[in-house]
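User: Predict the structure for this protein chain, please.
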Amino acid sequence: MTRILKSLVCGLAALALLSACGTTKVVDTWQSDTVAPEQPEKLAVLVMWPDQLERLVMERDIVSQLRKEGANAVESAEIPGMRGQLTRERVEVAIRNANADGLLVVFVIGGGGGASYERADYWLQNIGTGVGGWYSPYFYDVYTVREGPGWAERTTELTLETMYVDVRRVERVWSMVTQSEDLEYQDLAARLSDRIVKQMKRSKQF
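Assistant: Here is the predicted structure, written as structure tokens:
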């Protein structure tokens, strides 16, 4: 009987972990009415991340996926002048000097905290104020719907904005807001890369 109970507990734990696999969904998109998307000859990927090591990993994984689609993508961390504290002016100079005509910028606009799943119903929680826009900042409240599936585990939720900038015109072409629920950021870059690729395909940039 004890053996059966142990097996049952292990099975339920495994099921819980599987059901808790991270997800990334697009919650908002924007497309310019004045600047048409074009296929970039050289695309720089900049991830504005607090931790430099995580930034390198994110950029590497996104660039790898874009190259599989045929894009001439480069990690911004490999471009001279793109390490350390970055400002808009510094980024513009470095990107132009690298002869990149397209720039993908990814940055955090909300979330980042953990949540203990202890309730059995749904509720709406404000997780902070989002700041969006690399070239035209705007503010909005970020909410998330939480559910308590009955087991104690902490998750990390992040709201990210990804935007594509035409470097020659210095204009935003499109942007999308994604919400990721992850166990310690597992596969976040891979899932975000998939959303970026789909957005660029919709914009006919491949």
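The first strand starts at residue 23 and ends at 31.
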